[in-house]
Amino acid sequence: MVGFEMDDAICPFGGTWAVRISGTRIERAHSHMPKQVLVDLFLVPDVLRSPVAIFQNLMRRDHGDDFCYVGAPEERYSGDVTKKVPFPPGYVFVVMVSRCGEIRKWRLEPKEVGEHGSLPEGFSERFGRRIWPAS
Amino acid sequence: MAGELKKLIEDGLRTPFQSRPFYDPEDDALTFYAKDEDSYARRIDAVLTFFFSMVSHEPIGFEIKGVRDLLDRVGSFGLDLRARRVAVKKIMMGYYLLPERATGDDIQVLETFVTKDIDGDVELSPAP
Predict the structure, then answer these.
(1) Can you state the angle between helices B67-74 and B88-96, rounded to 10 degrees?
(2) From B43's CA, which of A43, A55, A123, A125 has a CA 20 to 30 Å away?
(3) Would you give the DSSP letter of residue B126?
């Protein structure tokens, strides 16, 4: 299966870059993941173009240079892709991207409570550093 | 690009959901969803993440990261290298050997998935 590619994702180090999802990964989502996970792929391009934050270093062996894009969509498609519904409050949308620009996963996660309410729960222990927006 | 993505998603919506674990070699992670429901992910520890139903907030799946490390902990027993298949229970054994891991209810949830919902092996397929 052919995947898809976009060339206007925000590059964590400035400008834009090309990122892609392999056909194999999409094929897995077709059969082994809930349909809403597949439908939420529609959110990925906008989050990669307009993230709230980008973290680097997923604190795992071989993933020290990978990125986590965090987004705050206002709405998303419901499961049958016929209508948009409000994005669930209390959650953010995260997209994990390898240092080579391969989209590895995308999902909803609970938001951190309080001052950092636009970031995923536990962000301070989970990621090495926040690299976008640059401080 | 938007049209290509739409087609990929719509094609997938016609494919039946299968509740089966899969291993992602690039991410080195085992993922399993028991139900086709809207969900969110919550990290339990550095290795284990649960997926919870957006409706009931009950766990409906899990992700185990760092599978190669976990298998190293338990050795090659039970690993069919030629077929590149491994019992999910073996990966779980590796997780249970971690010094810092979930306990109590979280372990019970994981055990229930492994004993009730998952049957057998997962393929350690080559990278896509």
Answers:
(1) 80
(2) A43
(3) P
| Rounded Cα gap, residues B45 and A131, in angstroms | 23
pLDDT at B82 over 80: no
Q: Are A134 and A64 in contact (CB under 8 A)?
A: no
Q: Which helix (H) or strand (E) holds B88?
A: helix B88-96
What dihedral do alpha carbons A122, A126, A130, A133 form, nearest 10°? -50
Residue B56 corresponds to which amino acid? S
Q: Which two tokens stand for residue B30?
A: 């085992």
Using alpha carbons, select from A78, A5, A2, A12 the residue that is nearest to residue A44: A5
Q: Where are the domains of chain B?
A: 19-123
Which residues lie closer than 8 Å to B3 by C-beta, 6 or more apart? none
Q: Do A26 and B8 touch (CB under 8 A)?
A: yes
- Domain boundaries along the sequence of chain A: 4-132
Distance (Å) from the C-alpha of residue A135 to the closest C-alpha of chain B? Answer: 27
Reported ipTM: 0.94
pTM to 2 decimal places? 0.92
Position A17 confidence tier, pLDDT thresholds 50, 70, 90: very high
In residues, how long is chain A? 135
Helices (H), A1-135: 23-32, 35-39, 44-49, 123-126
